[in-house]
């Protein structure tokens, strides 16, 4: 029933879903197949007091819809549903719970849990959807269009990067506009970043149990809507400011990849709140535990995510919702790709994973999404959830084996050399030649969920006391080392070794085949004080400290040179091997593996657990072929290397044993090189060295 005579109501149409402005007003359509009554509620823009309600008059199939004349952009709305009170069948209808439109493009404010406001009528707790103008399609010509071999990923939190930056406009700090401030973009460009991977920006709500402890979900992995940029990071208009941020990054040659969460929502399990999906079609949006006869128990949400529920992306309505959201972010918000949190859930059809799942096949054939960067976190915590190497060939996968085995090698663990070498050349035991690109592996040393690089070399154990769970949360298997003291120390020997290990790990990341993933802030030696699960810390634990010391400035300079070295090289970022028919081109004449005595490594050498030093030679094809030699020494003593290719005069470009770049001279080495304990060095022939050095100077990163 219309409660305000100003607006005229007619039936409207069932498509598109959501609120769609027309020349005469606005059409509203929502999926709610078992609802008996759907009421569209409007609210005052400033106070959120109710203005009027419209009972939706028509249901076509599973869609309720209405057109209301003279509705304009900026009006606030939500839904109330009535239906059968049959929880055994999965129905969660409750007219006292205001629901967010799953297709809302923008919310009027961020969402926070408030038990008192939710208890009876939830209208003042729940954020309202805004009727908004559909943005213009994002211009295809504005995108940088980097090839996959050019990607250097930089994982960043919108708030954390700019919250403490002294040069960022104070009102923009911690916001979308702060991330695209010239001071931040200049830093990214000088570092050599080609793509930022934003931690979740879709509207989310911190979990009730965290909120009640006085903490928050800082990371944002608890969505309430898949389309709306979270208002937390906006000064005024989240949609416009997000688009402006993307455009500014694109103008700087930096792509934007979103970390998206489609495996669960903020509605939690059986005792969780009804905010949106549960209230519209609980049976379809979520998966449930089954009896031995395959009958779902609607009182027990399947929990493959570890967050209380699991989104059923195999259901046609849910699959359409997710695909529509992905296309919206690409076509209208300008993003260039996605990193899918707990992506194994997307391949469950609906309970067991298959590479031929409907969702994965739908993305493959989609003309918009198939041309974006698609990165999987290839696991969830459900049965059979670890799926590294089992995604479609055009996907890229976060490689935890790379992370752990590279950490182990440099920590000095015995017997890791063979595995380390495999990770160095693209993890072809996982992503097989001829079937997967050498860039299938997303290589990372650190990620948001774990130690920062500084903490990785400073702590043996996690220190998560601030999370108020007696430090029981977070992963206990960190493959870290404090090198003599737990946490901060004034011992210069320990500090020097920590810096060397940071250089080793960072250089290995950049000189490995695959896509390098850098945890933003690692280049600034950012510490979380040993907290390896800082998801609930919206404070200095997560905010970046831009005040650099001589030591942290030296490491930043090292990171810049390592990244630019990779980006200027054809071989270091993209080996096309002759025995890999994934491509019909090759750029490598030979790859040689050597012992320190100069002899080629044989099978027994790889199985010698005490073998912690080796060399790899990369010799390219072409008119001006590159020629590289990288020496590795993870042992506790210096190692003398007899250099291969006796007719080659080798020039030193990078040495992790040296604190400052100025210590790396271009003196030639013909036969021998003494590599310090726990270090690596990069050498090249004269032609390669001269070309690379010129590129460094042109980029402003020369020694």
Automatic annotation (TrEMBL):
<dbReference type="Pfam" id="PF00128">
    <property type="entry name" value="Alpha-amylase"/>
</dbReference>
<keyword id="KW-0326">Glycosidase</keyword>
<protein>
    <submittedName>
        <fullName>Glycogen operon protein GlgX homolog</fullName>
    </submittedName>
</protein>
<dbReference type="Pfam" id="PF02922">
    <property type="entry name" value="CBM_48"/>
</dbReference>
<comment type="similarity">
    <text>Belongs to the glycosyl hydrolase 13 family.</text>
</comment>
<dbReference type="InterPro" id="IPR014756">
    <property type="entry name" value="Ig_E-set"/>
</dbReference>
<dbReference type="InterPro" id="IPR044505">
    <property type="entry name" value="GlgX_Isoamylase_N_E_set"/>
</dbReference>
<dbReference type="InterPro" id="IPR006047">
    <property type="entry name" value="GH13_cat_dom"/>
</dbReference>
<dbReference type="InterPro" id="IPR017853">
    <property type="entry name" value="GH"/>
</dbReference>
<feature type="domain" description="Glycosyl hydrolase family 13 catalytic">
    <location>
        <begin position="163"/>
        <end position="566"/>
    </location>
</feature>
<dbReference type="InterPro" id="IPR004193">
    <property type="entry name" value="Glyco_hydro_13_N"/>
</dbReference>
<dbReference type="InterPro" id="IPR011837">
    <property type="entry name" value="Glycogen_debranch_GlgX"/>
</dbReference>
<feature type="region of interest" description="Disordered">
    <location>
        <begin position="464"/>
        <end position="489"/>
    </location>
</feature>
<keyword id="KW-0378">Hydrolase</keyword>
<dbReference type="InterPro" id="IPR013780">
    <property type="entry name" value="Glyco_hydro_b"/>
</dbReference>
<dbReference type="InterPro" id="IPR013783">
    <property type="entry name" value="Ig-like_fold"/>
</dbReference>
<feature type="compositionally biased region" description="Basic and acidic residues">
    <location>
        <begin position="464"/>
        <end position="476"/>
    </location>
</feature>
């Amino acid at each position: 029933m219309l409660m305000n005579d100003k607006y005229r109501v007619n039936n409207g149409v069932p498509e598109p879903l959501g609120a769609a402005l027309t020349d005469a007003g606005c059409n509203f359509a929502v999926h709610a197949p078992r609802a008996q009554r759907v009421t569209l509620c409007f609210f005052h823009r400033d106070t959120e007091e109710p203005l009027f309600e419209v009972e939706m008059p028509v249901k076509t199939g599973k869609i309720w819809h209405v057109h209301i004349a003279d509705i304009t952009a900026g009006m606030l709305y939500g839904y109330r549903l009535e239906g059968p009170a049959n929880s055994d069948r999965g129905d969660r209808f409750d007219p006292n719970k205001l629901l967010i439109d799953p297709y809302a493009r923008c919310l009027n404010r961020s969402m926070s849990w408030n038990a008192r406001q939710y208890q009876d009528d939830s209208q003042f707790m729940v954020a309202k959807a805004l009727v908004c103008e559909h943005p213009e399609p994002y211009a295809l010509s504005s995108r940088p269009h980097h090839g996959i071999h050019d990607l250097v990923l930089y994982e960043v939190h919108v708030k954390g990067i700019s919250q403490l930056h002294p040069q960022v406009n104070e009102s923009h700090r911690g916001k979308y506009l702060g991330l695209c401030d010239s001071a931040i973009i200049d830093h990214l460009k000088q570092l050599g970043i080609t793509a930022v991977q934003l931690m979740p920006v879709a509207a989310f709500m911190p979990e009730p149990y965290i909120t009640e402890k006085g903490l928050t979900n800082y990371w944002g992995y608890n969505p309430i809507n898949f389309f709306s940029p979270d208002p937390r990071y906006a000064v005024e208009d989240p949609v416009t400011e997000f688009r402006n941020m993307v455009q500014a990054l694109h103008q700087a040659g930096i792509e934007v990849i979103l970390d998206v969460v489609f495996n669960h929502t903020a509605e939690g399990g059986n005792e969780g709140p009804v905010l949106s999906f549960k209230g519209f079609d609980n049976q379809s949006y979520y998966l449930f535990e089954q009896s031995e006869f395959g009958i779902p128990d609607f009182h027990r949400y399947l929990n493959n995510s570890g967050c209380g529920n699991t989104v059923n992306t195999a259901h046609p309505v849910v699959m359409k919702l997710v695909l529509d959201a992905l296309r919206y972010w690409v076509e209208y918000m300008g993003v260039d790709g996605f990193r899918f949190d707990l992506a194994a859930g997307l391949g469950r059809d609906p309970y067991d994973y298959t590479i031929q799942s409907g969702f994965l096949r739908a993305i493959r054939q989609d003309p918009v999404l198939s041309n974006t960067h698609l990165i999987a976190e290839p696991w969830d915590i459900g049965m059979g959830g670890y799926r590294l190497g089992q995604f479609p060939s055009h996907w890229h996968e976060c490689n935890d084996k790379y992370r752990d085995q590279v950490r182990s090698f440099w920590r000095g663990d015995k017997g890791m050399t063979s595995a380390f070498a495999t990770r160095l050349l693209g993890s072809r035991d996982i992503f097989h030649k001829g079937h997967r690109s050498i860039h299938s592996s997303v290589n990372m040393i650190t990620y948001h969920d774990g130690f920062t690089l500084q903490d990785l070399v400073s702590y043996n154990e996690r220190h998560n006391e601030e999370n108020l769970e007696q430090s029981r949360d977070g992963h206990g298997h960190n493959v870290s080392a404090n090198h003599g003291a737990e946490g901060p120390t004034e011992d210069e020997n320990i500090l020097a070794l920590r810096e060397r290990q940071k250089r080793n790990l960072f250089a290995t990341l950049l000189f490995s085949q695959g896509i390098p993933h850098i945890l933003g802030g690692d280049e600034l030696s950012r510490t979380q004080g040993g907290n390896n699960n800082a998801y609930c810390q919206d404070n200095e634990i997560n905010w970046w400290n831009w005040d650099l010391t001589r030591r942290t400035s030296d490491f930043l300079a090292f990171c810049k040179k390592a990244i630019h070295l990779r980006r200027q090289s054809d071989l270091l970022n993209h080996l096309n091997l002759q025995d890999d028919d994934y491509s019909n081109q090759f750029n490598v004449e030979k790859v040689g593996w050597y012992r320190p005595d100069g002899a080629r490594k044989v099978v027994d050498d790889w199985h010698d657990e005490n073998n912690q030093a080796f060399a790899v030679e990369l010799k390219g094809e072409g008119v001006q072929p590159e020629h590289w030699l990288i020496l590795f020494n993870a042992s506790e003593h210096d190692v003398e290397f007899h250099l291969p290719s006796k007719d080659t005069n080798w020039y030193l470009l990078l040495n992790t044993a040296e604190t400052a770049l100025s210590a790396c001279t271009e003196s030639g080495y013909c036969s021998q090189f003494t590599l310090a304990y726990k270090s690596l060095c990069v050498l090249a022939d004269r032609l390669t060295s001269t070309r690379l050095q010129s590129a460094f100077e042109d980029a402003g990163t020369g020694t």
